[in-house]
Structures are given as C-alpha cells and as structure tokens.
Amino acid sequence: MFHQVQKRIAASVSAYLQARYGVEGGAALESPKEPRFGELSLVSAFQLARQFRKAPRQIAAEIAAEMPVPEDVASLEIAGGGFLNLRLDRGRYGAALLAGPAAGAAGADREKIIVEHTNINPNKAAHIGHLRNAVLGDTFARMLAAAGRRVETQNYIDNTGVQVADVVAGFHRLERKTPADVARLIADPTVRFDYLCWDLYARVSAHYQGNPEALAWRQEALHAIEAGQGEMAEMAHLVADAIVNCHLRTMLRLGVEYDVLPRESEILHLHFWAAAFELLKQRQAIYFEREGKNAGCWVMPASAFSAAEGEDADKVIVRSNGTVTYVGKDIAYQLWKFGLLGKDFHYRPWMRYPSGRELWVTADQPCGQAAPSFGHGARVYNVIDSRQSYLQDVVAAGLRALGYPEQAERSIHFSYEIVALSPRTCVELGIPISEEDRQRPHVEVSGRKGLGVKADDLIDKLIEKAREEVDSRHREAPGEERRQVAGEIAVGALRYFMLKYTRNAVIAFDLQEALSFEGETGPYVQYAAVRARNILRKLEERGERLPDFSRELDAAAMGRQLAAEDFWQIVLAVSKAGDAVERAIASGEPSHVARYAFQLAQGFNKFYHEYPVLQEADRERRVFLLWLTDYFRRELEQTLAILGIAVPAYM
RNA sequence: GCGCCUGUAGCUCAGUUGGAUAGAGCGUCUGGCUACGAACCAGAAGGCCGGGAGUUCGAAUCUCUCCAGGCGCGCCA
Q: Integer distance in angstroms from CA A441 to C1' B69?
C-alpha cells in the first residue's frame, strides 16, 4: 500500500515541480531517518538551490507555501536545512488498507521474463553452492510473479559435457560396467545414485591426476556422446537423466520448481549452433584469424567485450579443429531465449509436480503433445556465479555485435558469490584443511575432489535438528505432523540463510550458524506468523468470530486508533511489503525481501508482547487490534511465500 | 601485468538514485514466563565506516591514490 501511495504523491509533486521550476527528474522523495519527521521527505529543495542560487530552506518555504497538497497528505513542514517533511492522512490510509488492495492490471500481453537457474551438471549430487543458486533464482522468480510479472523458469541441463563424460568413463573404464549394470544401479532403491556418482567422479578426477594418459577416456566418451551411438552414449543418457531426477527431487524438497529443462543434447541435435554461427558470420561479429596464436580459429575481437586490446584478449569461438567452444554455444542458447535464433526446440512433458505444475524438457522431435510457448523472453536473468562474469560479458557482447543492443542490455548476469565453508565446519565434516586455511574466514571446497557438503545431507541434518526442537515442545502431537513441521522449519532456516546475504557476499557456511533457529533466521519469521495465527485460533476456540472489519471500522475509527504513534508506525511498516518487493526487483537483490520479513517479524513479536489482543476491554480498540493481528498475519504469510517458506501448523 | 569484486561494532552482515544523531543478528552483561506457549521481549556495553586527498550545502555512498584480501583473464566447461 505504501508503495502505491508514494507513487501517487511523487506524481503529484513531480507535476508541480515540473510546472513551477521546470525540473525533469521528478520528485526526490525518500524515507526520513526518524519517524518524527513524518512518512516522506522531499529533498528537491537542495537540488534546486544550486540551480536557482537560493538557500535550500528558502526554496523549501516556496514549495510549502505554493504546492497543492497531495490528497494522501495531511500536512507538510519545513525542517533542517531544507527538508520538506510530509505526513500522511492516517484515517484515509487506514481506510484504504481496510478496503484491501486494488485489483492488479494483469494482462496476457505482459512481457515475459525468463529466469534461468540451478543449471547443475548432471553427473553427481547437488551441493550447498547449487542450493544458493537455486534458492536465489527461485525466490527472484517468486518475487517477479508476486509483483504481477509473467515469469518462465528454465533449468539448463548440460547432459553432453565433460563432467558427464568423466562419470561415464568412470563406469566404463574404472568400474567395467555396462549400460545394463548402470540401469540396475539406478533402479535399485537402496542405492543413492547421485551420491555414488559423486564418489565415482572424485575417483576419476584423481585417476586423471596420477595417469594423464587416461584423459583419452574423456575424449572417447565425449565423441561417443556427440555421435549419439554406442554403449557409452547410452550410458551418458542413463546417467544424466537419472541425476536430473535426483536434482529435481532435491530441489523440490526446498519447494523449487521449473517450467522447462532446455538440454545441451537438443541444442546439438537441432543444430542451434549452426544457425548462430551463420548469424555471427553474416553480421561480422566474429572473424576468421589467419595468423598468430589463434590462427585457424573464428574469434570475437576483445574490443567487443572489454577494455583490453590485442589478440591475447580475443575470445576464440570456433577452434581450429572446427569445434565450437562453450561460449559459442551459450550465445546460440541466449539468442533462443530472446526468440532471435529463428529456431525452436520440440518439447515433451518430463513430469508433473504435486502442485499441478507441468515440467517440460526439450526434445529433438515432436512428441504429439501441445507444449506451451517457451523462450521469447523480453528480459532474461541468468543466475550464474560471479566467476563466470567474463564469459557472460562475452555472451552479451555477442548479442550486441549481432545488432541486438536492447537484448544485450536485458541479458542480465544475476551473479552471486560462492558458498565456502567455515574452517570449523571443515573440521567438523572431516575435510582436511591446511594450517593456513585454518586462519582464514572461509575455505573453498572442491567438487572435483568430492569434498564439500551435499545438499541432501545438509537438509537431512537440518530436519533432524528441527525435529529435536519440535519434539521437546510438542510431545503430545502426532509423529507424522511433527515430521511435517520439522521439515518446514528446516527448509525455512535453509532458504532464509541463503537469502539474507546480498548476492556478492561470500557466504562462509557454518553448520552451527545455519542450524541456529534464533535471531535473524527463517524460523524466527515463521514463529511470528505462527503466533499471529495462534491469536486468531484462540479467538475461535473461545467461541468468537473474526469481526467484519470493513463494517466495524471506518475511516474515522481508523483515524482515532492510528492517532496512537505506536500503532501508526506498526501499520506503516506492515504496509511496506510491496515496497520491499519492488526494491528487490529493481536492485536484483532478494535479500531486501528477506530482511523486510525479519523486520516484520520483529515488529509483530514486539506487538505480541505489548498488546494482549484478546484481553482488550475497549470494543473499538479490540476490533482494531484483531484487524492489526490479521493484517500482520496476511503480510507475514505472503512475504514468507515469496521467500518460498511455509508457515508451520505450530512451533 | 590487465580487469572485476570486497574492506562498516569482538564475529557475521545491512545501509534505498549522495541526505538529518551509521543499523541488525550473534557473542558478552542485566532484567522479564500468570498460556494470545519465551524458537520470544526489554535494557547495557561495543564504531577515526581500511588510510589519505578531492568533489559540495551535505560523503559509509561519487572521483583519484595508496594499503589489505578474494575472483577472473584457456583452441576447459
């Protein structure tokens, strides 16, 4: 609500400033530092001061005297050196809240926003780093949807890459297994296939270390996979599909779902690269190098994507042996996302989520079932860790060089820093670390060596810990119910932990800290929502009903109640949810919503402590307090839903 | 060598397009359960915002410089 009111006021003030002073920039409105300064502060006087060579305070006085007061505003006053502080009309504001949100203007013509995330190599179990990616992407998609945007979630699967090839080589060469053997392992319910591959991949990598000639295995597997024939190709298919299912199951534990799985195999078989290659050559975005170290390659000049010059910085797109690099394929894929490639995949259903949502996968031929329209995004967010920013720059440069500057601008590298481990957590997990690492704030671990924390292990551990807490508080409740609650708390803790940091902060994952359910955590916020529900449930247990607020409270009553500074500040804070979401979208920073959720919970816990709602004797106040409780509940639930966090039945 | 990111309380981190007296959690210390169940609340201590210079009415925020740390710069993905 606050967001809409602020927009209305800004429009009104901007119109005045434009007419009176001819300024184009709009009204400089911000939230004052302290509540006593009102709800909004206009600082335009400072900016105008220079231009008109007058004291800021004098200009503020002019504005205060001449500007028509916007209808949401009750009063305005000059403060400090030239601030113009606005106070909202509390009764009007409260009445608007009672009336509920205005219907959103959602239309089918809304442009589509694509969020691509997760993108885990399908050759081993997911680890905590992947969880940060998935939770960031999933939450951002939820934020966009909550704000009325049309969103499509993609999870790209590199099922023909080196990492899959290495595991196939491991099965074939180290384990001497046939595709049938691998299929049996996958079907065996006692085998955790993704864990098995995790270890096998580490063994293969170690073997390469000691026996460099064994790298030929990788080439052998890659060729087989690319040709799409033979036992190894078959095995690669089995492994990748099975691991994708493992990943989907892991992610679903956190409530993460996708719309479509674009796969590298189809990009290959449907010759996406050939189409992109033609475009790149036609538009002269790349050129054939005849001499120097890149002789025989098609390269993109460094000037296209960085400040550096010279052939050293040029990026090879097609190798001298004619094969395309990863970046080249990524340019083709990125073109498809914007609907610029002139080609599309075929699709078939992969699975249906319990929620009812259908997940599709790309296919190289029609399956006979009508699929939704995928791709054709107006804006694309690629959730990829910050170490790949150089490559993302090259991809965007490719779009620009092809004559698509707007798309390059809207091709957003949604980068984030890695998840490292705290030294003490390494020790706890039995990961060997050097003396030097022990002194550092965090230690990066290697998936190649099989070190690190598997996502499912972490989730299991969190559930176990949550279960202990639940059991100690609710011995009487049915076991199945307690299991459910513990699961929701565990997921709440994990998702919040991944979201509370800004994207470019390195998370030093500390088991103890992540397992904590106190302070700035998901469970703290969940607890506030549960407490709000408890009050309302208690009311019904006492044989009462929730009043019809819009009938029992009018603008005058709201005005009377909101005259109390305490209540006004609470209502104001609760009404800023939409503001937090918009800020998070504009800055691409989901942590804003996480932090807002925490503030909201803090506000509620304080309210809960100070005002025994059900004991209130004054009738109007009691109805108001019940309304406020219900309002808190709604916003807490909605904000948690955006974060992908459930509200447990009890805590 | 070049490029990007980071440096804020003992620790981990916030800090809106530059705005009024720099915030939170953890940890430490002191209080508060009579069930709207304390996974909570109240209070205290704790800061030359890495150093320096500049821009201006105003800088944690912008510019330059130095210091410290991280990451990237493959015909790997």
A: 11
pLDDT beyond 80 at A198: yes
User: Is there a domain that residue A649 lies in?
Assistant: no
Residue pLDDT, tens place only, A606-641: 999 999 999 998 999 999 999 999 999 999 999 999
Residue A433 has pLDDT above 80, yes or no: no
Are A433 and A366 found together in one domain?
Answer: no
The pLDDT, as a whole number, for residue A529 is: 97
Alpha-carbon torsion, ordered A56, A60, A62, A67, to 10 deg: 150
Task: For residue A461, report the phi and psi dihedrals to the nearest 5 degrees.
Answer: -65, -40
* Distance between CA atoms of residues A323 and A342, nearest Å: 22
Q: What are phi and psi of A153, to 5 degrees?
A: -105, 125
Helix (H, G, I), strand (E, B) or coil at A188: coil
Identify the pLDDT of residue A138: 98
> Distance between CA atoms of A481 and A470, rounded to whole angstroms?
10
Nucleotides of B under 7 A from a protein CB: 2-6, 11-17, 19-21, 23-27, 32, 36-42, 56-58, 70-77
C1’ B18 / CA A280, Å? 43
What confidence tens digit (pLDDT) does each residue in A336-365 have? 999 999 999 999 999 999 999 999 999 999
CA A474 – CA A543 distance, rounded (Å): 25
pLDDT tens per residue across span A460-513: 999 999 999 999 999 999 999 999 999 999 999 999 999 999 999 999 888 888
Residues in chain A: 651
The vertex-A395 CA angle with A417 and A109, nearest 5°, equals 95
Say whether both A501 and A536 belong to one domain.
Answer: no
Q: Are the C-beta atoms of A150 and A112 separated by less than 8 Å?
A: yes
What is the tally of structural domains in chain A? Answer: 4
Are residue A206 and residue A72 in the same domain, yes or no?
A: no
What residues contact A213, with CB distance under 8 A and at least 6 apart? none
Nucleotide nearest to A539 (CA to C1'): B36
- Residue A60: domain span: 2-88
The integer distance in angstroms from the CA atom of A638 to the C1' atom of B44 is 36
pLDDT of residue A428: 77
Nearest residue to A270 (alpha-carbon basis) of A362, A349, A185, A186: A362
Same domain flag for A203 and A321: yes
Q: Where are the alpha helices (DSSP H) in A284-357?
A: 326-337
User: Percent of chain A scored above 90 by pLDDT?
Assistant: 70
pLDDT of A307 strictly over 70: no
- The whole-number pLDDT of residue A27 equals 77
| Residue A459 CB contacts under 8 Å (≥ 6 apart), including other chains | A250, A253, A254, A490, A491, A494
- For residues A324 and A379, membership in a common domain is answered with yes
- ipTM summary value: 0.95
Nearest nucleotide by C1' position to the A321 CA atom: B75
Of residues 68 to 87 in chain A, which lie within 7 A of strand B by their beta carbon? 79-81, 83, 85
- Who contacts A233 (Cβ-Cβ below 8 Å, separation ≥6)? A224, A225, A227
The predicted structure's pLDDT at residue A589? 95
In this prediction, residue A62 carries a pLDDT of: 87
Q: Is A116 helix (H, G, I), strand (E, B) or coil?
A: strand
Mean pLDDT of A92-119: 82
User: How many C-beta neighbours within 10 Å does residue A62 have?
Assistant: 16
Q: What is the CATH number of the domain that holds A183?
A: 3.40.50.620
CATH number of the domain that residue A561 is part of: 1.10.730.10
